[in-house]
């Protein structure tokens, strides 16, 4: 598990280490500088000409120490001090004094520098101390850096990216490598920040574990070690041991969603998968996925199909409803029936969410009233249900503009989780899974996964894990994580352009080993 922190939390860890434990700030700075140099040495040569660009805060202090260590090791290195002398921290002052006693070129004005003379840039302008949009003077420097052709190593944060939410504060350095200290920052995982980091390396610079653990963060990601949380397979088992999933999906001319969800549930390990879909999908589903049990209904005669639907719902350990069911009157009737008969956990996806949003729109009191809509939603769905909207679906549910949600992703997650008994997997380039005070930010996956059907696959994976007994919040987080890992594996076998939803299903076997 990777704890994700914001700048304030990281500063608290810094000051706990320095003030409570007594580690001198300069020791941490030296460790930080050494870690950056160690990373650089994997790629640079003595032929490279390096420019270290420093601000006046401690990020700049790191930069000055990096320049000194590189010089001691025999590299060709110059310094550009872009900060203000008056706002230099004590540590940065000390580093500057050392640098001035060495035989180094120190530039002070951008117009004097020919960036083309350098093959490598080190960005030590601003780190986690970024407070607002970059000043014009720094903006000009960042523009020059981004036009430079060589590699850029960012110290702790690419200058201009907010460590708190990954937003670009006016303009930001597009780094090739970012070496960050202690913990991942939230802004390095969320977009666009994640893109600006390039390859992200998290370095231990000697913060004691007690300092690292001194703050609680509600934000975290999973890494490969978390795969241990996957349900264990019992040797003494039969198909009943691994649960029964009911996938209620598809409508006339829409069979793909049911197929993808059901197949993903199987590949995730569900023992039994039943598909409940319209009669018109019978032959195609039977051909596509003979392993599944098929139950069909006639949407025009739902009243006569009630008992059949009730039986399927009540037999299942886990029910998925929504993919491709459409937003017709009949689909709404089906949704009502299922919600009436079902026992949690339930996964509500796609059109199931759209149907409820449309229904809310018929009540004037629920128009433009996100809070009441979310409360109503939490009160009417079975507790611990998992809701898997992409941002457009969530915008419909909340009666908000999609851009507003996207620009305030962390606030959006808070609004969904507040006082809610539900679990939301908010699907975006970085999916956030929320429940009560926990925010899981997913760090696996790639742009190739932004293609039709990948949401249906995720739904099936969640259902597969639920059916095997993972509790709902864990199942949602783990499913989002392995869905992304499978997407990454599939992209590595093909490429991000060619990836399609079924490739993710086929890659599940590889990543769940
Ligand atoms: N012991 C420690 O603490 C350790 C800290 N470490 C390192 O220190 C970093 C944190 O240092 P920090 O707190 O000094 O902040 P930092 O990132 O240098 O930024 C402040 C500077 O940026 C400037 N600035 C801000 N906003 C701006 C804007 N919009 N536009 C333009 N300028 C702006 C601001 O200018 P001012 O407002 O003062 O004029 C000030 O000069 C951390 O990321 C890590 O690298 C490591 O060495 C480990 C030990
Ligand atoms: K930086």
UniProtKB/TrEMBL annotation:
**Transmembrane region(s):** none
Domain YjeF N-terminal: where? 10-213
Q: How is the cofactor bound?
A: Binds 1 potassium ion per subunit.
Specify whether Lyase is a keyword of the entry. Answer: yes
Keyword RNA-binding (UniProt) = no
Q: What is its EC number?
A: 4.2.1.136, 5.1.99.6
Residues engaged in binding AMP = 427-431, 455
> What are its cofactors?
K(+); Mg(2+)
The positions annotated for binding K(+) are: 59, 123, 159
Catalysed reactions, semicolon-separated: (6R)-NADHX = (6S)-NADHX; (6S)-NADHX + ADP = AMP + phosphate + NADH + H(+); (6R)-NADPHX = (6S)-NADPHX; (6S)-NADPHX + ADP = AMP + phosphate + NADPH + H(+)
Residues annotated to bind (6S)-NADPHX: 58-62, 127-133, 138, 156, 257, 324, 390, 456
Note the subunit structure: Homotetramer.
The record's family statement is: In the N-terminal section; belongs to the NnrE/AIBP family. Belongs to the NnrD/CARKD family.
Its name, as the record gives it, is Bifunctional NAD(P)H-hydrate repair enzyme
Say which species the protein is native to. Answer: Jeotgalibaca ciconiae
Gene that specifies this protein:
nnrD
């Amino acid at each position: 598990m990777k704890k994700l922190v914001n700048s304030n939390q990281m500063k608290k860890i810094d000051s706990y280490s320095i003030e409570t434990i007594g580690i001198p700030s300069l020791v941490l700075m030296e460790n930080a500088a050494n870690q950056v140099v160690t990373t650089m040495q994997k790629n640079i040569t003595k032929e490279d000409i390096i420019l270290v660009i420093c601000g006046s805060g401690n990020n700049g202090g790191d930069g000055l120490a990096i320049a000194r260590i590189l010089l001691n090791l025999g590299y060709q290195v110059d310094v550009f001090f872009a900060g203000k002398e008056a706002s230099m921290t004590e540590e940065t002052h000390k580093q500057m004094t050392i640098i001035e006693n060495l035989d180094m070129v120190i530039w002070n004005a951008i117009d004097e520098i020919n960036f083309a003379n350098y093959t490598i840039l080190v960005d030590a302008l601003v780190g986690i101390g970024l407070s607002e949009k970059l000043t014009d003077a720094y903006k000009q420097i960042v523009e020059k850096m981004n036009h430079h052709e060589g590699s850029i190593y960012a110290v702790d944060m690419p200058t201009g990216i907010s460590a708190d939410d990954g937003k670009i504060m006016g303009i930001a350095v597009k780094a090739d490598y970012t070496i960050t200290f202690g913990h991942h920052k939230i802004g390095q995982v969320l977009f666009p920040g994640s893109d600006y980091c390039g390859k992200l390396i998290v370095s231990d610079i000697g913060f004691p574990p007690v300092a690292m653990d001194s703050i609680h963060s509600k934000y975290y990601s999973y890494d490969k070690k978390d795969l241990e949380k996957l349900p264990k397979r019992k040797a003494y088992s039969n198909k009943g041991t691994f649960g029964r999933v009911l996938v209620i999906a598809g409508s006339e001319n829409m069979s793909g969603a049911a197929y993808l969800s059901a197949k993903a549930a199987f590949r995730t390990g569900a023992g039994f998968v039943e598909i409940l879909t319209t009669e018109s999908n019978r032959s195609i589903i039977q051909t596509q996925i003979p392993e599944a049990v098929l139950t069909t209904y006639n949407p025009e005669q739902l009243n006569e199909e009630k008992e059949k639907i009730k039986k399927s719902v009540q037999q299942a350990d886990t029910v998925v409803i929504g993919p491709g069911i459409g937003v017709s009157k009949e689909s709404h009737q089906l949704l009502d029936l299922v919600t009436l008969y079902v026992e949690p956990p339930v996964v509500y996806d796609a059109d199931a969410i759209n149907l409820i949003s449309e229904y809310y729109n018929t009540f004037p009191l629920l128009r433009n009233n996100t809070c009441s809509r979310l409360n109503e939603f939490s009160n009417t769905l079975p507790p611990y249900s998992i809701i898997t909207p992409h941002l457009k679906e969530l915008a419909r549910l909340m009666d908000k503009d999609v851009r507003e949600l996207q620009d305030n992703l962390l606030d959006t997650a808070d609004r969904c989780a507040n006082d809610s008994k539900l679990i939301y997997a908010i699907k975006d380039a970085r999916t956030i899974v929320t429940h009560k005070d926990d925010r899981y930010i997913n760090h696996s996956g790639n742009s190739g996964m932004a293609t039709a059907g990948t949401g249906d696959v995720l739904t099936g994976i969640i259902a597969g894990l639920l059916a095997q007994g993972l509790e709902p919040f864990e199942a949602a987080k783990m499913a989002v994580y392995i869905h992304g890992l499978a997407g990454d594996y599939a992209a590595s076998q093909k490429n991000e352009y060619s990836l399609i939803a079924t490739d993710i299903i086929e890659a599940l076997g590889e990543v769940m080993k």
